[in-house]
Design brief:
The complex is a heterodimer of chains A (about 180) and B (about 450). Chain A is α+β, with helices and mostly antiparallel strands. Chain A is built from seven helices and four strands; from the N terminus they run H-H-H-H-E-H-E-H-E-H-E. About 35% of the residues of chain A have low confidence. The chains are: A alpha+beta (about 180), B mainly beta (about 450).
Chain lengths: ~180, ~450
């Protein structure tokens, strides 16, 4: 488990250099020109991302929370506001799920989509569904069989964090992968 | 319920409303309604306690008075200021009432009969000293409170020219508890003033989007039971329900057609959320949208010709309209910001209530479909689920309050505001105002 976290952290640091969304790329370009180390770069990216409302920080927080006792789920993938784009740093979670299904032909993986509380309930139900389907698509692209994947959405109804600030919202925009 | 306790509670309730404080609890689930803003020049009216030979199960005059006051359009006189308690036109001491500034008054009697009660009332124009309207009828003991609401509707219509909506019901969802696996949801129906709440469904699973049938006999809703979401239609009187849309994908957001024969809803059976029409007789589905975007929250226009819905095919949620016979969706929200969802038509079909979002939060606004004019009506940062009263004058919606979500109401002209609290820590959401009762 901890080795996995370390692997992800390294992936995040490396990934933040190469992958990620357009906003991050712009900031990184200016930072690397100043000659920062990968660690400093990751830290700076995280800080900027938080102030702009993205959840660079939430990746690590999420993994930490996950390890210390998320009930009934093995993996959590977080999303940007009003987005169902699966960020590259969650690829290991998806790969692990695909491997699990390949090794266990009778097994089923459940993908539960969630949103933060803002906006209409029904639209959020649909948004959570779209997030779960986005993860499903990624798994199928990696070779998983659709018959072994279930998708579901709870919209804004089951938040991980009952708070009403950006940090809480970041925790709630997620897909939980259960198997 | 003991008549005396009811009368005392009602008196306290009315007094508390007049003093602007929260009424005391009468029962676990009682709703309290506080007027937070009234109309500029409310009409002064006195509803004199109806004369009766003995105690009644309902204080009819108090119910009428509370209804009129709750509309925000009337300034109702308290009984302690009344210079007498006449029960008929000829008993009224007009000079005494005129001197208090009362413009209108209601007097009446309730007398026991073989099957319940005989009710008589007269609406009087105090300045002219003449009757405006007189009524005589009979009702059962169980329907006495409903009769009082009907009288309030008559008075309201006589004096404002608009149809009243006091003798109606509302449905809403409550949530108690918190944390995974410990929440309890209920679907409730109550009188429009919150009295007589009845639980139609109690479930650990989320209940969404209650919608009334036009005859007021059924409620459709979505429920996330098990690992799927299904749409149910439940008979209010018997409690019997049937699943009308279930199976693969999420089924939700039901809305009855004005003729009651069809249900608009959203299903994702074909891969992503799309709008369908379910013909209730045959059980056949007609698909209305075909787009990889999210299409949800359909609602019927009052003439039954069009369906408005939320779609993010343009990038973010906006409102579109489609007709059953010309299924090319037409966008109708423009220049109203990045987020418009959850449409509901007014009774005359000329306005659309929407949840309008932006950097300032989410609020309820009303769009004029003819000229594109838009007015924000809610006064909080998190408002959702607007529902028009059947007379089109008030909007009920849910809003984030101190202890979670609560209901609020606002008049369509924005002048009258109410907050509706459910004591006991339950959160209240997804209100749906029922139709006129037949």
């Amino acid at each position: 488990m901890y080795k996995r976290v370390l692997q992800v952290l390294v992936l995040v640091a490396a990934g933040s250099l190469v992958f990620g969304c357009a906003k991050r790329t712009k900031e990184e370009a200016s930072s690397t020109e100043q000659g920062l180390t990968p660690e400093e770069l990751a830290a700076q990216t995280q800080g900027t991302a938080e102030s702009q409302g993205l959840e660079g920080g939430a990746v690590n927080e999420g993994m930490g929370t996950d390890l210390t006792g998320a009930v009934g789920t093995d993996r959590i993938i977080y999303f940007d506001y009003d987005s169902s784009e699966v960020r590259e740093e969650f690829r290991p979670i998806i790969e692990a799920a695909v491997s699990h299904l390949a090794a266990n032909p009778g097994a089923v993986v459940s993908l539960e989509g969630h949103t933060d509380e803002r906006g209409s309930r029904e639209y959020n139900l649909a948004l959570g569904e779209r997030r779960a389907q986005a993860v499903q698509r990624q798994m199928v692209l990696l070779g998983a069989s659709g018959t072994q994947i279930r998708t579901m959405s709870y919209g804004e109804e089951r938040p991980r964090d009952p708070g009403h600030d950006e940090a809480a919202y970041g925790q709630n925009r997620r897909v939980e992968v259960a198997y | 319920m003991q008549p005396q306790r009811t009368a005392m509670s009602l008196l306290l309730c009315a007094l508390a409303l007049l003093l602007g404080t929260t009424p005391p609890l009468r029962a676990q689930e009682e709703i309290s309604i506080d007027i937070t803003q009234g109309a500029d020049n409310p009409l002064p009216i006195a509803v004199v306690p109806f004369r009766s030979p003995g105690p009644l199960p309902e204080d009819v005059a108090a119910v009428i008075s509370a209804d009129l006051r709750r509309s925000g359009r009337f300034d109702t006189m308290t009984t302690d200021r009344m210079p007498g308690q006449p029960a008929a036109l000829q008993e009224i001491d007009f000079p005494a009432w005129k001197s208090l500034g009362t413009e209108n008054m209601v007097v009446g009697t309730v007398t026991p009969s073989a099957n319940g009660y005989n009710v008589e009332f007269t609406l009087v124009d105090v300045f002219k000293g003449q009757k405006l309207y007189a009524y005589r009828g009979s009702t059962s003991a169980a329907n006495l409170r409903y009769t009082a609401h009907q009288i309030a509707d008559i008075v309201y219509e006589q004096l404002t020219g608009e149809k009243g909506a006091f003798a109606t019901r509302i449905a809403y969802v409550t949530v108690r508890g918190s944390g995974a696996g410990r929440k309890v949801y209920t679907l409730q129906v109550s009188d429009s003033d919150g009295y007589n709440p009845r639980t139609l469904l109690e479930s650990p699973a989320e209940i969404f989007s209650p919608a009334w049938s036009p005859d007021g006999r059924q409620i459709a809703y979505a429920s996330l039971e098990g690992r799927t979401s299904a749409v149910y239609v439940q008979d209010i009187a018997t409690g019997q329900r049937r699943a009308v849309a279930k199976g693969q994908g999420i089924n939700s957001a039901p809305d009855f057609s004005p003729d009651g024969t069809k249900l608009a809803l959203r299903r994702s059976v074909d891969g992503n959320p799309e709008i369908y029409v379910l013909y209730l007789d045959s059980g056949l589905f007609q698909r209305l949208t075909n787009d990889p975007a999210i299409d949800t929250e359909p609602t019927w226009s009052p003439d039954g010709q069009r369906i408005a819905f939320t779609s993010d095919r343009a990038g973010g949620p906006q409102i579109y309209e489609v007709s059953l016979f010309n299924p090319t969706p037409k966008r109708i929200t423009f220049n109203l910001g990045p987020y418009n969802a959850r449409p509901r038509y007014s009774a005359d079909g000329k306005h659309l209530a929407v949840v309008n979002g932006g950097s300032g939060g989410y609020r309820i606004g009303v769009l004029n479909l003819r000229d594109g004019g838009f007015r924000v009506l809610s006064d909080s940062s998190q408002a959702e689920s607007p529902s028009f009263a059947p007379n089109g004058t008030m909007l009920l919606y849910s809003t984030a309050g101190g202890g979670g979500t609560e209901l609020a109401a606002v008049s369509v002209d924005g002048r009258v505001r109410q907050r509706i609290d459910l004591p006991g820590g339950a959160q209240v959401r997804e209100p749906a105002w029922g139709p006129f009762r037949r």
